[in-house]
Amino acid sequence: MNSIVETIRIGLLRSGLELKQFLRQRESVVFTLFFPVILLFIFGTVFKDTIAPGVTFSQYFVAGMIASGLVNTGFQQLAITIPMERDDGTLKRLRGTPMSVSSYFIGKALLVTFLMIIQTALLLFFGSVVFDLNLPTQASLWWNFTWLVLLGSACSTILGIAFSIVPKSGRGASAVVSPIVIILQFFSGVFFVFTSLPSWMQQFAALFPLKWLTQGMRSVFLPDDFATQEVAGSWEIGKTALVLVIWLLLGLIFAIKKFKWSRE
C-alpha cells in the first residue's frame, strides 16, 4: 500500500515538473494549445455549408478537432518527445532516481489531461463566440463528453508512450509519427464527413481509436437524428467505449513490457 502511495506521490510531483518544462517551450505551447483553434478558424471560415438540417460544417468540425486534439496532445507529442528525452539522457538520469515507470507514466498522463482540458476549453469558447457552436444542453451529453475526454486522453497517452519505442532516434521521431497521425485524421472523419469517404478508408479507420473518438464526440455535439447518417445508423457509444478500453489495455501492456530508459 505504501509503495502505491509513493508511486502516485512521485507521479504527481513529476507531472508538476513536466508542466513547468512544457510552459518554458513557447513553440510547443502555441502549437499544442492553439493549433486546433487555428484550424477551426481556417476550416470554419472556408467551409460554411450546412451538411445536414441544423448542422453546419463548423459544428461537425469541432467534434473532430476535439478528438484529434486528444491524439495530437497525447499520442503524437509523447511519441516524439520521449525518444528525444531518451537520446539526450534525460530518461537515463531519471532511472537513477526513485522514480518508477508507473510514476513516469502518471506524470505524462496528468500533463496530457491538463493540456487537453485547456485545449478543449479554447475550442469550445472560440467555436461558440465566432462560429455559433451549439453546446450540449443535456447533462447526459456532458457526462458522455467527460468520459470520452478522460478515456481518450488515457488511451492516447499510453499509446504514445508505447509507440515511443518505435522511432530509432529522437531526431527522426517526428518523421515517423506525424505522417501516421495526419493519415488517421483524414481517414477518421476529422476534416471530412466520415460517410463521404470511400468504404475501404472507413473500414481501415475503424481499426483505430481516432475514428471512434470522433464518432463519440459527434454524438455529443450533433443532433440525435444525425446518428442515422453514421455508417451503422447509430452513435455506437458502447462500442466506442469498448474499442478505447481495448486499445488502452493493449498499449499499457506493451508500454510496461517494452519501455526503455535508454537505447542500450
UniProtKB/TrEMBL annotation:
The keyword Transport applies. Residues 27-262 form the ABC transmembrane type-2 domain. It is found in: Cell membrane; Membrane. Keywords: Antibiotic resistance, Cell membrane, Membrane, Transmembrane, Transmembrane helix, Transport. One of its GO terms (molecular function) is ABC-type transporter activity. The keyword Protease does not apply. The chain crosses the membrane at residues 29-47, 59-80, 101-125, 145-166, 173-194, 237-256. It comes from Candidatus Nanopelagicus limnae. Belongs to the ABC-2 integral membrane protein family. This is Transport permease protein. Its main location: membrane. GO terms for cellular component: ATP-binding cassette (ABC) transporter complex. It comes from the Bacteria. GO terms for biological process: response to antibiotic. It is a multi-pass membrane protein.
